[in-house]
Design goal:
The complex is a heterodimer of chains A (about 525) and B (about 160). With about 525 residues, chain A is of the alpha/beta class. Chain A contains twelve helices and 17 strands. In chain A, strands 4-11-12-13-10-16 form a six-stranded antiparallel sheet, sandwiched between helices. In chain A, strand 14 and strand 15 (about 405-410) form a beta hairpin. In chain A, helix 1 (about 20-30) packs parallel to helix 7 (about 210-220), helix 1 runs parallel beside helix 12 and helix 5 (about 125-140) crosses helix 12 (about 495-515). The mean pLDDT of chain A is about 95. In chain B, helix 2 (about 30-50) packs across helix 3 (about 60-70), helix 2 crosses helix 6 (about 110-125) and helix 3 packs across helix 6. With about 160 residues, chain B is mainly α. The model of chain B is unreliable at about 25-30 (pLDDT under 50). Chain B has seven helices and no strands. The chains are: A alpha/beta (about 525), B mainly alpha (about 160).
Chain lengths: ~525, ~160
């Protein structure tokens, strides 16, 4: 097959995945003159491939391969993640909050919750701040670096009016990687309303149209789309020596590597590490701690729709440009540990119908759907405590077309999550009803787009997979570069933190390579 | 049965007849065509009762029926046969509304009904012809998004909380 760098070139860094983690890492290494081969299981979309059509775009962007869900998640499609150049940054709705300092110190702040596996991050907010700063600049985050926030949409105005009524004070149109002014060659937002199906005018930041072309511009980048990595190969000395991959035509090859960085998002990173087991690593790669796949977190999350007394047309505009931050604090008088945020959320009639009544039909149902124009939407995103039993494992018998075992995503709500959701739902009811809402609908079971924790960082190799740089404890030249690293979920959407960690990791990795340590 | 419902169901059956006959010449068998016509008409009638929008063109209900048949599902075929048996082979549009709704209610919870309902909702709510009915603007980039088309024009929010 045609490649920029030879399959036998063992001086390259292999990165698996081209999303927030992999794409950022690739750009940073390439701009330092380090050769990178980046494998992406999916294809590469052009801007003209992006259309305002959620089902069509899901077919183009999302992982469609079989994954099973067990517990409090859908049985099929328990996770929504993307298989395309740019990864899930093609789908995300661009919310960019930073973690709070107490959220990095989850164990110290909350204590060990019953049945949980809480730990503190081996990184503090202070240490990550310069990288958050740089990430916000690169992504063009509104509300930072002098970038103005987006204007207030109808759905936002509903949430804000309700927020005032219930006594909240910290709310605005959010820190977004979507701007009302042109930035770095990206278009200003036109309030199209289809953010999660890809932005057809490139107003929303994605590695597909930023870090990937920037890496290509350096001459040190070899992107291989439609190539599925099926194994990380290790040698007798216990070092990663390369990867095995299957190309678009279905042929298997091996690419040698000096360093391997896995950034496949939580399900694929877990699957790859576990499936790459050998006699030396019988429990999977980097898994002497037995934590790979465990501590899976997806946020305490619920979606709420309010049937308002007037028209909202909430589909008009950026899907999640609004936040209330007042509940992002640790206050056990509320009956749970950790905090949560509210953010605006809009969606089309199909999903609204399913939330109003997943089994509805008939005249009354049709009448209710005619009120779609009166619907307002809010989502809750909260701290999700890690448990060893919430985990991603390999199916004992079923395999995919590459011969890799199918992933099983097992997750059950902790009672802290249930208490938090109950509180949050009560607050949303108050908020919507203070404006005259006649009905409020909730959904709690859906494919998660925030997936974290399955290769977590830590100082103790017995209870974590990676060190404070995302370097696996067991294999010096094997790194993890995506949200699998997270030690706690916090109440924050993960992407900004993934980018910040990748920026920091790239500095460390480059320095380790320069000094010959790796 | 209300006149609106009867009108819609009759229109569906007429359109089903026309579109199936158009395809019949190519396929050649009039028995198969009649069977197919009656499947399409039945499924379209069911789709209407599952999500009745009288102002929606019968073509949208027929499209939903076609999508269902294209699933090529043994469960759908078996379910339709059972339904015909239970309705004593009377055409769906000829059954009184009360009886149709009672039949549908009695099937709630079984997997054929589940497939019917899910597919009907998916097809109809993705059909641009339903967008105006529910008050959804649909694809917007071709018109420059909603920045100057009312994304912030809400006018009924008052300063004080309602009792």
């Amino acid at each position: 097959m045609d490649t920029k760098f030879s399959l036998n070139d063992s001086s390259v860094v292999v990165i698996v995945g081209s999303g927030a983690g992999g794409g950022t890492l690739a750009r940073e290494l390439c701009t330092r003159g380090i050769k990178v081969v980046c494998f992406e299981a999916g294809g590469r979309l052009q801007l003209s491939d992006i259309e305002n059509n959620p089902p069509k775009m899901a077919a183009k962007m999302n992982w469609q391969d079989l994954r099973y869900g067990e517990g409090d998640v859908p049985k099929l499609n328990p996770v929504t993640s993307c298989k395309t150049v740019g990864g899930t940054t093609t789908h995300w709705t661009a919310n960019c909050p930073r973690f709070r300092d107490f959220e990095f110190a989850a164990l110290s702040t909350y204590g060990q919750l019953e049945g949980c596996n809480l730990a503190d991050w081996p990184v503090t907010l202070r240490e990550l701040s310069p990288y958050y700063d740089r990430a916000e600049s690169m992504l063009g985050v509104t509300g930072t670096h002098g970038i103005p926030r987006l204007p207030e949409s109808n759905n936002y105005k509903v949430m804000a009016a309700g927020a005032r009524n219930v006594g909240y004070r910290d709310f605005d149109t959010y820190n977004m990687a979507i701007s009302p002014i042109p930035l770095d060659g990206r278009a200003p937002c036109l309030q199209t309303g289809f953010c999660s199906s890809g932005c057809p005018i490139n107003a929303k930041w994605t590695t597909l149209f930023t870090h990937i072309p920037e890496a290509e511009g350096t001459g040190f980048f070899d992107l291989r789309p439609e190539c599925m990595v099926t194994q990380v190969i290790t040698d007798d000395a216990g070092r990663a020596s390369g990867v095995r991959f299957v190309d678009k035509a279905g042929n298997a090859h091996e690419q040698k590597a000096r360093v391997v960085c896995v950034a496949g998002n939580v399900v694929e990173t877990t699957r790859l590490l576990l499936h790459s087991k050998t006699a030396n690593f019988p429990n999977g790669l980097a898994n002497r701690s037995d934590q790979v796949g465990r501590n899976y977190m997806r946020h305490a999350a619920t979606v709420a729709l309010g049937l308002m007394p007037g028209e909202v047309h909430f589909y008009k505009g950026t899907q999640t440009a609004g936040v209330i931050r007042d509940e992002v604090r640790h206050d056990t008088t509320r009956g749970f540990s950790g905090g949560y945020q509210f953010h605006t959320l809009s969606m089309g009639p199909e999903r609204v119908a399913a939330i109003m009544n997943p089994n509805g039909w008939g005249k009354d149902y049709a009448s209710q759907l005619r009120k779609y124009k009166n619907v307002a939407g809010i989502a809750i995103n909260g701290e999700d405590p890690p448990e060893k039993t919430n985990r991603i494992t390999l199916h004992p018998t079923e395999k995919d077309k590459f011969g890799m075992p199918v992933a099983v995503v097992s997750y059950r709500f902790h009672k802290n999550t249930l208490a938090m959701l109950k509180h949050a739902q009560g607050r949303v009811e108050l908020l919507f009803r203070s404006l005259g809402a006649t009905n409020v609908f909730f959904a709690t079971h859906f494919g998660a787009t925030h997936n974290m924790g399955t290769a977590r960082m830590g100082l103790n190799a017995a209870t974590s997979v990676c060190n404070k740089w995302g370097q696996t404890h067991d294999i010096k030249n094997l790194f993890v570069s995506d949200g699998s690293l997270f030690v706690s979920s916090a109440s924050a959407n993960p992407t900004l933190t993934i980018v910040a960690l990748a920026l920091r990791q790239s500095e460390y990795l480059a320095q380790q390579m320069r000094s010959g340590a790796v | 049965m209300s006149s609106t419902r009867r009108t819609v169901l009759v229109a569906i059956s007429q359109l089903a007849a026309v579109s199936t006959l158009a395809g019949c010449g190519r396929r050649g068998s009039s028995d198969a065509a009649q069977a197919r016509e009656s499947d399409v008409e039945l499924l379209a009638g069911l789709a209407y009762d599952l999500l009745p929008f009288p102002e929606l063109s019968p073509a949208s209900y027929l499209n939903a029926a076609q999508q269902m048949l294209d699933l090529d599902s043994a469960e759908v075929v078996a379910g339709l046969a059972k339904l015909r048996e239970v309705s004593r082979d009377t055409a769906w549009r000829e059954l009184p509304e009360g009886e149709r709704l009672a039949l549908l209610s009695s099937w709630e919870g079984n997997s054929f009904f589940g497939v019917l309902r899910a597919n009907t909702m998916r097809t109809l709510l993705r059909d641009p012809a339903t967008f105006a009915i529910v008050g959804y603007g649909g694809p917007s980039i071709q018109l420059g998004g909603y920045l100057s088309r009312g994304f912030d024009d809400i006018d009924w929010l008052t300063a004080a909380p309602r009792k």
